[in-house]
Structure formats: structure tokens, C-alpha cells
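Order emerges. For instance:

***
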Amino acid sequence: MGILLLATFLHLVTSATALGVNYGMIADNLPSPYEVANFIKTKTIFDSVKIFDTNPDVLRAFANTDISVTVTVANGQIPSLTNVRAARRWVNNHIRPFYPQTKIKYISVGNEILLFNVQDQINNLVPAMKSLHLALAKAGIRGIKVTTAHALNIFNGDSVPSLARFRQDYAKSFFAPLLLFLRRTKSPFMINPYPYFELNAMGNKLDYALFKRNPGLFDKHSGKTYTNALDALLDKTHSAMSAIGCGDVDIVIGETGWPSQGDGGNLVATVGNALSYNGNLVREILSGNGTPLMPNRRFETYIFALFNENQKPGPLAERNWGLFRPDFTPVYNVGVLRNGQPMPRPAIRAPSSKKFCVPKPGVTDAQLQSNLDYACSQGANCSPIQPGGPCAQPGTVRSRATFAMNSYYRNKGQADNACDFSGTAQITTADPSYGNCHYP
């Protein structure tokens, strides 16, 4: 299929199902969230993004774009959110200031918690999800679904798709109540299938992983033949869900992708393989062909990831999952740009031209309020965040403190020690400005 024809095909079918992308930000060279939101809306066929926190700058940037957003609750917050009051505070702080202007679709409570195997988080996940669902209802918010994303260490050993079952230690105690909650709330079961990480388990059948021509896998128990690894992973999930009576719950692919570069000994993390996997993934998912056990079905899918992230720890491959470089040029042309062609580099603020002082992620509201009070008492220009000012909304402590802290930093000549605030602040080159609120 030619590139232009493919792009036209993809543009048409995305109106019927979501094709999204994971927007990670573990990098020091990324464009501002507003530039990212504009790029996704105007230059790509993506209609949804998934982020790994509730970054207010990102949520503001996607306001009124009609791009759906999935936000994530940090794993460490799960136990505290079993308390309904804490869940209501979380919704009031992280959802209400932005919704519905920002089209928040899912709250993913934690990410791959069975992989990290912290029992307090595992035991409290479903109660926390129930509390957040109730908190949304109490806030009058009906359009956001609560779910959680799983790595595929959830199965009981390696088996053909039709015989796959959830791990015996968690099937009844964890997955049954989780899936019953998802069914009751009409929320999806979110999985992160990565054939790249399953290569050893599948006997290093690279062509099978990359959707290339191969002998396939025959499942004698179902009589189905699998020509690619993703279909097999999806059907393993469906079989495990069906075994506990919840095969009717929708499946969403929260993450999947392939790295384009790796360390010297990594021969599979290449541009060619990434192009093959992600290009075939997009065609396969949006074709609506489904899988052998779930035919004629489109799966809402979020490709990992939007950008290469230069500060991710680990091997080189971890920093090279992106479809795009920070200047928005494609690492390889997978067919998600609207005209099917590489885009010229947009005008981006030079990273070194201006610096801003912002709170670090995870800083508490109490710390932010203290920073806000201190900055305003020490000569920061806080009039724009007063009622009626251009930066008064959203009226969250984080938003107001961010403006005040940056104003204080600017008044002090942008000295590095002026952006400390007892270790709760950091310097960034990403402009936090939004709408009519312009940061000095």
C-alpha cells in the first residue's frame, strides 16, 4: 500500500476507533506541551494520548483540542486512595480543574503493579479503583472510566492462546474482582503487550513478532493459526478473562511498540524492525480484522512512544522507543502523519533561550502553598494569579505556585539558587505559558 494511500486509509478509519500514543516526558529536550498538543492535533492521525501522571501543563495544553487523554495515578499513591475522602481530594485536585475542557477518558490507577510486586499496592488496587469511581460520581463526572494497565507477566506459564489462564496466585483474589469491577463500570481491561520483550519466550521468532511472513503458530485446541505475536497475546488475554467469566470486558492496548536503536549487542532494536512492527501494527489494528478468537474487532491502541526520551535509565533501547525526535521529525515514517510525509521542523523555542522555575513532580499541595506564600511575600508579581487575572484559572495550588515561583526566580536574576524552594523546584526550558497566561 502506498504511503499516501495508507495515510488516507488511516485517516478514514481513525474516526471509528482510537489510535493513540504514549506521551512520555523523561527528557530534557522536549518541546512544550502546547507545541505537542498542536502537533498531534494538526499533523498526525492520533486522536488520543496517554500520559504517566497528571501533569497540569499537559492537561491544560490539550484543553479544547478534542484529543482524548488517559492520565495515570502513581503506583505509590494506590494505598492512600482506598480512602474515599482522599480519592475525592485527588479528583478535585487533578481532574476537576481540567475536565471537561480537557477530554480525559481514562484514569489508569497504577501501571503494571504485578510486575513490580509490591503487595500493599496489589492488595489495595481494586479498592482504590472503586474509591476513585465513587469520587468521580460524587463530583458529577460520568464520562471518565477507571482502569489499570498490566504487563503480560499475568499468565500462568507459557501456553497456546486458547489455554492461557491468569496466574494461580492472583486469578481469584485479584483478577476476578478487578474484572467484575470493570464489567460493572463498563471500563476496559488495559494491557501492555510487547512482542519485543517476548522474543525469548517465543523462540526468537523475529518474523512472527514483526508481522512478517512466517510459518505461524497452530493452536490445536482451538484450531486457529496465528501469523503474528500480537494476535496471540491478545487472544491469551481473552482466554484468561473468559476462564473466569469475564470475556465480554473490552480490551484496550495501553502500550505496545518497538525500539529503533539499541546497544552494540542488541541486533533487534533497529529502525527497520521498529518500522516493520509499528507500521504493520497500525494497519493490523485499524483494519478491524481482529484476532482468531476475536474476529472483526478493532482494539483501541496506544503506541509507545511519541518521543525518544534521552533521560530514561537503562540500556540504549530504553531511550529510543519514539516515533519522533524532539523537533517533531520522524525517526522513521510509520504512516501516522496526516499527509504521510516527514514534516518540516516546526518553529520551536530554542531550549537555551529561556529558563523557567517550576515545581518538581510529586510536590505536595502543602509545600506548594508554602512556596506560593513565600514568593508573593518576597516581591514576586502575583497579580496575574489573583481573581480575574489572566493566570487565575485553573485555581489549583500547583498552577498558582508555579507562576509565583517562576516570577520570584525571574526577579532574582534567574540565579540557580533562586529556584530551590527547599528542594521542591527545578529549572526547565519548557515554557509553562498557556492560553492568555504568559510566563515572564
Summary: The CA atoms of residues 383 and 389 lie 7 Å apart. Residues 119-138 form the longest helix (20 residues). The longest strand covers residues 103-111.
